[in-house]
Amino acid sequence: MTITFKGLARGAACAAVMLAALPAAAKEFRLGLITPPPHVWTKAAEAFGAELAEKSGGEHSVSVFPARQLGNEAQMLQQLQTGALDMAFMTVAEVSNRVPNMGAFYAPYLADDIGHAARILRSDTARGMLEVLPQEAGVVGVGYGSAGLRQIVSRGEINSAEDLSGLKLRITPFDPILDFYNALGAAPTPMPLPAVYDALANGQVDAIDMDVELIDVLKYYEHADTILFSNHMMFPMVGLISARVYGSLSDEDKALITELMAKHVDSTLDTYTEKEPVWTENLMGVGKTTKEAGPDFFGDAITEWEAIWSEKAPSLPDLRAAAEATK
């Protein structure tokens, strides 16, 4: 049997037509987080994956990797930039290490309470700050979530800001919070979440900067004497898609994935608004000394922070205006 060149050409053309008629190959996306499985962010990521599989008719799915399984946030951000990782729910803190303007979200006492924080993060000003991420960080930001407001848990008694001086205090490793605790004279100590409980138990650190969810759920209070309810900073999260991966998607998939991820990231704002008072109330009953602190407690540290970040974060005045408008 003789196969002619024209026959091969016709066969190739027919194959191309048949392939074009087939649905796009199913895609299993990988989404990384640093939070443990019970955390609100992890549950939101899983809900996003489940709805994407449903709405795409099984064409797409999401495998969620919590608890730093894919590395710390700096490593995951690098993976997003190269396209080795598809998606992440990540602290705005880590993004601010690459895009300093995002550090504006950590202005001390920007938000009055957890509900106010949600309104700030849903503002046009906050959403507009995502627009530069593809160019400056190689990622597409779809919207904001939250991990509540920050508190301080200490192994010793805390009666004033001076009591924080010299304390080894666990922080998330990023510049805005580092500058804040340096201004207080503390010894800020970056440390990943999985190491915090044991570090507080054995005295490797004297205190921690943490949200009420994890203080309650992971029982950090068990090895502390004082819980200082200060609400001194927001701690927002952002849903990210690798810009390389995003660019490879069809317009239809871009719209679907962006819509659903934004929905589930945003849902964490409502979760924290609802549950933060419950977690706070739980901590009132754990037998530890509990105190409240406002801006006056921290004194000149707030002014020092503002002096540093008013230059690094040009959106800070606009974000403060948005905060004022959403009270």
Question: What is the topology?
Answer:
Blueprint: H1 5-21, E1 27-32, H2 40-55, E2 60-65, H3 73-82, E3 87-91, H4 92-98, H5 114-121, H6 124-128, H7 133-137, E4 139-154, E5 168-171, H8 175-184, E6 187-190, H9 196-202, E7 207-211, H10 212-217, E8 226-229, E9 234-242, H11 243-247, H12 251-284, E10 289-292, H13 295-298, H14 300-312, H15 316-325
Parallel strand pairs: 1-2, 1-3, 5-6, 5-7, 8-10
Antiparallel strand pairs: 3-9, 4-7, 4-8, 4-9
Helix pairs in contact: 2-12, 5-12, 8-14
> What is the helix/strand order?
HEHEHEHHHHEEHEHEHEEHHEHHH
The name of the CATH topology of the largest domain is D-Maltodextrin-Binding Protein, domain 2
Count of runs of 4 or more consecutive helical residues: 15
Spatial gap, N to C terminus? 82 Å
The total tally of domains equals 2
CATH class of the largest domain: Alpha Beta
Question: What is the H level of CATH, i.e. the homologous superfamily of the largest domain?
Answer: Bacterial extracellular solute-binding protein, family 7
Radius of gyration: 23 Å
Mean of residue pLDDT?
A: 92
**Shape verdict:** globular
SS-derived structural category:
alpha/beta
Fraction of residues in H or I helices: 40-55%
**Percentage of residues in DSSP E strands:** 15-25%
CATH architecture of the largest domain: 3-Layer(aba) Sandwich
Q: Sheet bearing the most strands, described?
A: 10 strands, mixed
